[in-house]
Design brief:
This protein is α+β, with helices and mostly antiparallel strands. The protein has 8 helices and 31 strands. It has helices at about 1-30, 95-105, 165-180, 190-205, 210-220, 400-405, 405-410, 415, and strands at about 50-55, 60-65, 75-80, 95, 105-110, 110-115, 120-125, 135, 140-145, 155, 160-165, 225-230, 235-240, 245, 250-255, 260-270, 280-285, 295-305, 310-320, 330-335, 340-345, 350, 355-360, 365-380, 380-385, 395-400, 425-435, 440-445, 455-460, 475-485, 490-495. Strands 4, 5, 6, 21, 22, 23, 24, 25 and 26 form a 9-stranded antiparallel sheet that branches. Strands 7-16-19-18-17-20 form a 6-stranded antiparallel beta barrel. It has a 5-stranded antiparallel sheet with strand order 29-28-27-30-31, with no helix packed on it. Strand 17 (about 280-285) and strand 18 (about 295-305) form a beta hairpin. The longest helix has 28 residues, at about 1-30.
């Protein structure tokens, strides 16, 4: 409760500080005598370069000439080049050691290191589609023998899957054998062109060079085609049955390899940024206790599951012995997701505004400066910094929101700096007593330009000598007050006005409280 009260008090002081600072500027610009203040150095105004004017409470809006703020009832405040004005990074501010302690300002160092991955997830095994092959009929014919009769049967490379009787091959082979057996004739003994043409017709019928060579070696017709497995694995699709007729190019078998498999990992989208293609992975399955399968991330699929808010990471796992099969559940741990050395800061030091990421950089002599940074992966309470900082620098990791606030940076500069021994500005006003007690008086008054105040009803602390007993509710009074070091308005004098005197109340000026 105490800390909450301190935060509320700090915010209130910031608002009052801005008002007091605005009052000082108003007095300078309107020709009033400038009171002593700690916010301005003792230097001629024309000796300092003004970058722009702004309202301390709305610092993002900049103006190229002085005037009245469109946001609050106060004059715009100049920002000087030698006072840490905005140069693209937001300028700096000096914070006294006393204020740093009261705000609980803590700092941390920008270090170089590696992000220890903590990404662990689950997934399921699927076929490696890059290891799948389709076996087709090279020629039309009849299936005389089928050696694989069910899906998910395991086959070896070179195993005969089926035998086809191909009538079209018979005519082509007989022609080839007849031409090769001819001796001379009208060709004058040169039969090589005819033999090559017959051989080409066999190729067009769908025979491979190996099968043609077999016909030449045997010297007889080979009417049956043996369909062999081009790779080892499991038959995932079977479109052939014994005795059926097939056409050239018809798919008969689909074989999925088991040397490697895919594991589709479900990665939360908040952690997907820590993964990259090539990231090493270790997987285990409750169906195979004690076995660890190693692999790497092949791709991060560009699709988010709208229900689970996860992305799929396609992981390729080595599958010695073919023990991992599609549909099997696995747990995965991603190792060294960010193995390169990077700059790291505590994650709590980064202020995410929605449009940019900001950290508060610690400079010499108690000065702080907001810096735009480009962040990377985040894990284990550490955030990667890709641009904006250098190793060895220090950043604020607590109370940085107060320091980053331009209102705090500019509007309460006097509060953030060490308070010198200086005379307090005395402001004068007239108003009507709304309520009064021994410690405070609620006054309804008009403009007080020296304090940057418009018409309002405000509470003032009693003078050190106490509240005069002659002051009563409804009295028209004239009063003087100062701002103490905590920016509280404290009366130094308050006296009733003579009857008939017109007080500068909001009604008298035609304004609203």
């Amino acid at each position: 409760m105490k800390s909450r009260t301190l935060v509320i008090a700090s915010l209130a002081l910031a608002v009052l500080g801005a008002s007091s600072y605005g009052a000082f500027r108003y007095g300078q610009q309107s020709g009033m005598p400038a009171a002593t203040t700690s916010a301005d150095p003792a230097a001629p105004a024309d000796a300092r370069k003004i970058l722009y004017w702004h309202d301390p409470m709305v610092p993002s809006q900049k103006f190229d000439k002085p005037g009245k703020s469109p946001f609050m009832d106060m004059q715009l405040v100049p920002v000087y080049a030698d006072a840490g004005g905005d140069k693209g990074e937001g300028g700096g501010v000096a914070v006294s050691a006393r204020v740093q302690q009261s705000l609980g300002v803590r700092t941390g160092e920008v270090v170089e290191g590696t992000l220890a991955t903590q990404v662990a997830t689950v997934g399921s095994i699927a076929w490696n589609e890059r290891d799948q092959v389709v076996v087709q009929a090279r020629a039309g014919g009849f299936i005389e023998r089928l050696n694989v009769r069910a899906t998910l049967d395991r086959v070896a490379k070179g195993q005969v899957l089926a035998e086809l009787y191909v009538p079209d091959w018979v005519a082509a082979q007989e022609e080839f054998l007849a031409v090769r057996a001819m001796k001379g004739g009208d060709m004058g003994g040169n039969l090589a062109p005819l033999v090559d043409a017959a051989r080409q017709r066999m190729r067009l019928a769908g025979m491979s060079d190996e099968q043609i060579a077999k016909v030449e070696a045997a010297g007889r017709v080979q009417a049956r085609l043996s369909i062999v497995a081009p790779a080892g694995g499991v038959v995932t699709e079977l479109a052939a049955r014994e005795g059926m007729t097939v056409a050239m190019g018809a798919p008969l078998f689909r074989i999925g390899g088991l040397a490697t498999v895919w594991a589709n990992a479900e990665v939360p989208e908040s952690q997907a940024g820590a993964l990259r293609p090539g990231t090493r992975v270790e997987a285990s399955s409750p169906a195979l206790p004690g076995n660890v399968f190693k692999g790497a991330v092949q791709a991060i699929l560009p699709e988010v599951n709208q229900t689970t808010r996860t992305l799929k990471a396609r992981v390729e796992l080595a599958n010695a012995g073919g023990r991992l099969v599609p549909g099997m559940f696995v747990s995965m741990r991603f190792a060294d997701a960010a193995s390169a050395r990077v700059l790291l800061v505590p994650s709590e030091a980064v202020i995410q505004t929605g449009r940019r990421a900001v950290v508060i950089l610690v400079e010499d002599k108690g000065r702080f400066r907001p810096v735009d940074v480009e962040t990377g992966a985040e894990t284990g309470g550490q955030t990667e910094i890709r641009r904006g900082l250098a190793a060895g620098q220090r950043v604020v990791i607590s109370s940085q929101f107060l320091i980053d606030s331009e209102a705090s940076l500019r509007g309460v500069l006097a509060r953030m700096a060490p308070a010198p021994e200086a005379a307090l500005t005395i402001h004068h006003g007239q108003g009507v007593v709304v309520s009064v007690n021994a410690s405070t008086a609620l006054l309804k008054h008009g403009d007080i330009p020296s304090a940057g105040m418009g018409p309002m009803t405000m509470e003032y602390a009693a003078p050190k000598s106490g509240m005069p007993k002659t002051v009563k509710v409804g009295d028209r009074v004239q009063f003087e007050f100062t701002m103490n070091k905590d920016f509280e308005s404290v009366l130094t004098a308050i006296t009733p006005m003579p009857s008939g005197a017109a007080a500068a109340t909001p009604e008298a000026k035609g304004g609203k409280p």
